[in-house]
Specification:
10% of the residues lie in helices and 44% in strands. The chain has helices spanning 23-49, 109-112, 260-263; strands spanning 10-12, 15-17, 53-58, 66-69, 72-80, 84-89, 103-108, 114-119, 124-125, 130-131, 142-150, 155-162, 170-175, 187-191, 197-203, 207-212, 217-220, 223-231, 235-240, 254-259, 265-270, 276-277, 282-283, 294-302, 308-314, 319-323, 333-338, 343-348.
């Protein structure tokens, strides 16, 4: 609602309105503002497009599963004089000093003055070089977060920010789904620049390491994401190396079943409709709702013995199913389906910074 007090003198497109005594003048002002409203709506839509995905799935099978790239989110603290390098890579090593099959985040490079995101080791820069003077410290640990997640378009959005700050200091968009696509990220690599040393700690909560020079040390990427589901029964979530199913009963996936068996049980299996249980069958009566979204989380993380552990739970609660797979897969995508002729609506939350 506009008030005369606030629009008693509005200037738009060279026209001055000294009062709002008529509805006609109010409508003229509103129409003059429409281009600006369109710009604002565009900003909002663009922001939503670069956030979490929503989708509807119906049926169960190779062609019914809908896939997207797994969202990535982790944090760390580092003590270094200059040039911290973090790579997202599909393997636990790099193929030479110019491996193109990764994303490289450079924080405090060029004598602790600039930061940038690159495609490949020492590869093409997909952001401008961002001035970040003294972002690192040789005396104190500084905290950072990195996220990478899918958009509603054919892009992945890469971000890096300081601990405690929601806004990233650098952002990049990279195309996915074409011949130039980088393989699914399975590992994190850490290094510094030639003849320098860096100390990393609290990597996603616990891991620590020291590195010297441009020699990467790798950790298995910790997968952790949240989603909401609305459906009558049996929401299936698959963690897979690929963005498709290789067959009607693909065995190279970890499948999480929420509210299966007429919304009464949940389980983690190896493979589609797998007979090899990773977790026990858990009684979860009415865990799903056909009229309301229910929140869940899934993790796939290495424990202290570097053994992969799969877990799932309700938002705000601990896990209700956990298991250790006997077959290790290099995970990069997440897929959703629903049993039989049923339909489910899914909201996958975007990768979030650590605050």
């Amino acid at each position: 609602h506009f008030s005369k007090k606030y629009i008693s003198s509005i200037h738009t497109s060279g026209v001055s309105y000294s009062s709002v005594d008529s509805n006609q003048q109010v409508m003229m002002v509103f129409k003059a503002c429409l281009p600006f409203l369109a710009i604002i709506i565009g900003w909002v839509q663009q922001a939503e497009a670069h956030g979490g995905d929503s989708l509807t799935v119906k049926g169960y099978g190779k062609n019914e599963y809908k896939f997207m790239q797994l969202p990535i989110s982790f944090q760390f603290e580092v003590q270094a004089k200059t040039g911290v390098h973090v790579v997202l890579a599909p393997k636990n090593h790099v193929d030479g000093k110019n491996d193109p099959n990764c994303y490289e985040f450079v924080i405090g490079g060029w004598d602790n003055s600039l930061s940038v995101i690159k495609r490949g080791l020492q590869g093409s820069e997909i952001t401008q070089r961002i001035p970040t003077p003294d972002i690192l410290s040789k005396d104190d640990f500084r905290g950072f977060w990195i996220t990478a997640g899918p958009t509603h378009t054919s892009e992945i959005v890469l971000r890096a920010g300081r601990a405690g700050e929601e806004e990233p200091f650098m952002t990049a968009f990279a195309l996915v789904g074409n011949n130039d696509n980088i393989d699914p990220v399975g590992y994190l690599g850490f290094a510094t620049w030639i003849d320098h040393t860096a100390q990393f700690r609290h990597i996603s909560g616990g891991r620590s390491m020291a590195v010297r020079g441009y020699n990467f040390r790798f950790l298995r990427f910790p997968i952790s994401f949240h989603f909401k589901a609305m459906g009558e029964t049996s929401v299936h979530v698959a963690l897979s190396p690929y963005n498709y199913m290789q067959g009607e009963r693909d065995t190279d996936v970890y499948e999480f079943v929420f509210g299966g068996y007429s919304n009464s049980k949940s389980v983690i299996t190896q493979g589609m409709e797998g007979k090899q249980y990773i977790s026990d069958q858990i009684e979860t009566p009415n865990i799903l709702s056909p009229t309301a979204f229910r929140g869940f989380w899934i993790t796939a993380e290495a424990n202290a013995q570097d053994v992969l552990v799969l877990s799932a739970g309700k938002d705000g609660e601990g896990p209700f199913m956990t298991g250790i797979p006997t077959k290790h897969l290099h995970l990069g995508h997440i897929g959703f389906a629903c049993w039989g002729d049923h339909t489910a609506h899914i909201r996958l939350q975007a990768a979030q910074p650590f605050l």
